[in-house]
Amino acid sequence: MSFCCGASMLGTKGTLKHYRTQVHNVPLLFCPVCNRVEVHYKVEHEYEILAEYAHSDGMAEIDFQDFVMEDDESIFRNCVNCEDDDPLDLVRSQIDMALDLLTVAKQIGDTKWEYELKKRLAVMSRRKSKLIQK
After folding, report:
1. Domain locations in the chain?
2. What is the pLDDT of residues 94-117, one digit of tens each?
3. The pTM is what?
């Protein structure tokens, strides 16, 4: 499981740009709070090699799946949620985890962590309200 700003990151696939080359279907981890994106750690090395070779060959686009065989189920097994999950369930899950962590932060007296968790909860609460309104 990967974390960013304290939130668990979501597993997804997407396109990344490496200089002038777009690499499609790259396994990614995405933070629903701060929107940070990073290549999944299990394929990070393969991504770097493929992207660099594609760029040096002058390719405009390349599909990661055509060159690296990775089982989607196993690569995202350690993710708490995936992008394909119901958005409202995903937000509720993130809120539940943040509330659990807030309890821990209060118990150990970590005021900085409490503040960060409260900020995350505010972001996720706004997102939850928008999803309910839809």
Report:
1. 3-75, 87-133
2. 888 889 889 999 999 999 989 988
3. 0.66
Matching residue, tokens 């309104």? 133
Nearest CA to 38 among 5, 68, 77?
Answer: 5
Q: How far is CA 79 from the centre of its chain?
A: 9
In sequence order, what E strands does the chain have? 3-4, 7-8, 10-18, 21-30, 37-39, 61-63
Amino acid at 64: F
Report which DSSP code applies to 27. Answer: E
Q: Which of helix, strand or coil describes residue 89?
A: helix
Sign of CA dihedral 1, 26, 91, 105: positive
What is the third-level CATH fold of 3-75? Ubiquitin-like (UB roll) (3.10.20)
- Partners of residue 61 on adjacent β-strands: 22
User: Contact at 8 Å (CB) between 64 and 47?
Assistant: yes
Is the CB of residue 68 less than 8 Å from the CB of residue 27? no
Pairing of strands 21-30, 61-63: parallel
Residue 14 sits at the vertex; the CA angle it makes with 81 and 18, to the nearest 5 degrees, is 135
